Amino acid sequence: IRVGLVIVAAGSGTRLGHDHPKAFVRLGGRSLLAHALDRLASAAHEVVVVGPPGHMAEAGVQVERSGTAARIVPGGATRTGSVAAGIDALGSVDVIAVHDAARPLVDAAALRRAVAAVVGGADASAPALPVTDTLKEVADGEVVTRTVDRSALRAVQTPQVFRADVLRAAHARGDDATDDLALVEAGGGTVVLVPGRARYLKVTYPDDLLLAEAFLASGEP
Ligand code: CTP
Ligand code: MG
């Protein structure tokens, strides 16, 4: 089966607070985008990088430096719009993996586990972890109204892998969501999760970058 990979890197990284797009922020001497590309490209047949519209030249430099034959297209105003742009740029593939450049310490094994779940019959799959913090629901004024049972909750990571026809149909409905699994769920598709790892964390806030540096320095791939 042919695997198409879309790496979304078009966000600005407002919460990280650097003066250039988050995908170009450095971790151990290389950009977050370069890490993600290098770690996943070997497990895909076709790669599309979705770059920040105002910084396409820099996206090109990062892709060239990684030595991956990836097409580069400009993203949209939302993550969903950026994923849609990436999907449109892919050729004929059987499954599509969508990965956040903001998760630099991904590995090809994560992609392969999710692809295997889709080949095994799921419409979509992604790595995920059990939630470890106790979860509270609050009302106005941060008053706790309820403790949520976390035993059935999972925190989902990327790459998220889809049957190509299912993902294209989900995006054709034109809805917006924080991830693409939600679009497939809304369409009644079956989503099966596979084991994630803490090191697949998303770099969102400055502390996340420190944590990623520690994982990188720990030596394990
Ligand atoms: N993304 C994108 N296009 C957008 C928004 C987000 O391609 N219009 C990508 C980001 O580049 C990132 C991933 O989606 O790889 C996850 O988004 P997030 O962590 O929210 O990144 P940003 O939107 O860049 O950060 P922030 O929300 O703090 O501005
Ligand atoms: Mg965002």
Automatic annotation (TrEMBL):
It catalyses: 2-C-methyl-D-erythritol 4-phosphate + CTP + H(+) = 4-CDP-2-C-methyl-D-erythritol + diphosphate. Coiled coil: none annotated. Keywords: Isoprene biosynthesis, Nucleotidyltransferase, Transferase. The record marks R15, K22 as: Transition state stabilizer. It comes from the Bacteria. Its EC number is 2.7.7.60. Signal peptide: none annotated. GO terms for biological process: isopentenyl diphosphate biosynthetic process, methylerythritol 4-phosphate pathway. Catalyzes the formation of 4-diphosphocytidyl-2-C-methyl-D-erythritol from CTP and 2-C-methyl-D-erythritol 4-phosphate (MEP). This is 2-C-methyl-D-erythritol 4-phosphate cytidylyltransferase. The gene is ispD.
